[in-house]
Amino acid sequence: MKPTSHVSDPTCVWNDALAEVHMVSVGPMDNRVYIVRCRETGDGILIDAANEHERLLELCRTLEVRGVLETHGHWDHVQAVEQVRAAGYRVAVTAEDASMLPSYDDLLVHDTVLEIGRLRLRTILTPGHTAGSMCFHLEGAPVLFSGDTLFPGGPGATTFPGSSFPQIVESIDRLLFAPLPADTIVFPGHGGGTTIGNESPHLQEWVDRGW
């Protein structure tokens, strides 16, 4: 199943026998919010409480979300954090980006496994867009949630305080392109999806252009 390029309402954008991935677009920056759901147990997790908290809370209830993961701490990805925490959902973020959130519950670290029902979501710390940017790989499935680290056509912006173009290139090359199969679908924090195979041949082009 290929990724959907535009979503205005919650839609299942990928699934297999074990997992479902739902996506909704929220806020003025067209943030993509994802819910990964175990088909066996019904348990889900939400990636990026970005905005429009009422929509997200309804989605959380419908898809049996158990917690929230933040890909990084930029304002457009965290506008609904306080409201989802107030509703009882624990919010997790990296230590490097924790101070950028209004509040949080748990800290994420590199290369650990988060269990969602029978599913396993592996954390990948990919600094560059922010110091604590994190991607999530659904183990046993060709699915990567890249936040603002990797988009169709290049890396995320590195013009912010604390960002680094050399660092994001290293993160993408060493932690995403090198280990992940070419058919891995990349679901970014904004806009349409891509695959590792579509993007990896262009790494040197990005280095040469400098962004």
TrEMBL record:
Residues 30-190 form the Metallo-beta-lactamase domain. GO terms for molecular function: hydrolase activity; metal ion binding. The keyword RNA-binding does not apply. It comes from freshwater metagenome. This is Unannotated protein. SUPFAM superfamilies: Metallo-hydrolase/oxidoreductase. Keywords: Hydrolase, Metal-binding, Zinc. InterPro entries: MBL_Glyoxalase_II, Metallo-B-lactamas, RibonucZ/Hydroxyglut_hydro.
